[in-house]
Amino acid sequence: DGLIIIPALDKKNLAIYQRLLREDFPFVFINICFRDLKVNYIRTNDYEAAYQAVSYLIKMGHKKIAHIRGPIGVLECDDRFLGYKDALAKNKIYFRSEYVKLSDYSIKSGYKAMNKLLKLKKIPSAIFCVGDDVAIGAYEVIREAKLTVPDDIALIGFGDIPQISTLEVPLTTFNEPKYELGEKAVEVLMENIAACEKWKPKEIVIKSKFIIRKSC
């Protein structure tokens, strides 16, 4: 009768989603969505969270702040990037394009991105990562370079996933309210199923919680 979907980041199933829309089949996306789709979308407050994270780093005295972002065109990644840029602008800190590196949310991509950042002439003093897996990869590179978190480089992730418990330095991150996201997705889906072919797409934002630990 309906679907709750956490889409892949690479848009490989985009044609399927477009077909579902044409056929008025009810479905809901959680967290991941694309700019060229008008669908039910339940997500966290990505822009506000990123703005809060970078503002906190600035408050802690950082000015050379990098961002390891997610794929371009994915709404949550674009919003977190925009929050990062706007926080810099608000505090009159120059935006450096070389401080922004792409990732695919994996540990490996975070590792590669952090390696690139450490090769810059002016190494950033803080990194805001699009996700916790990315932060884990970045942390590994920092440690291999004989640098320390947070004394040499501060680190913030996103997601509060169980895997971050393996890090020697507890990671500052955002806790995504997974239960609330799922609950709201079911609620919206049931409304759409009841409405049959008359349903209209909804976007619902649920606030994430900033958890300050020892990585920054």
UniProtKB/TrEMBL annotation:
Keyword Transcription assigned to the entry: answer is yes
- Keyword annotations from UniProtKB, A to Z: DNA-binding, Transcription, Transcription regulation
Q: Where is the signal peptide?
A: none
The UniProt entry, under InterPro entries, shows:
LacI/GalR-like_sensor, Peripla_BP_I
Q: Report whether Ribosomal protein shows up as a keyword of the record.
A: no
Query: Per its UniProt record, what Pfam families does this chain match?
Result: Peripla_BP_3
Q: Which residues form the Transcriptional regulator LacI/GalR-like sensor domain?
A: 54-216
- GO MF annotations in UniProt: DNA-binding transcription factor activity; transcription cis-regulatory region binding
PANTHER family (UniProt xref): HTH-TYPE TRANSCRIPTIONAL REGULATOR GALS (PTHR30146:SF109), LACI-RELATED TRANSCRIPTIONAL REPRESSOR (PTHR30146)
Q: What is this protein called?
A: Transcriptional regulator LacI/GalR-like sensor domain-containing protein
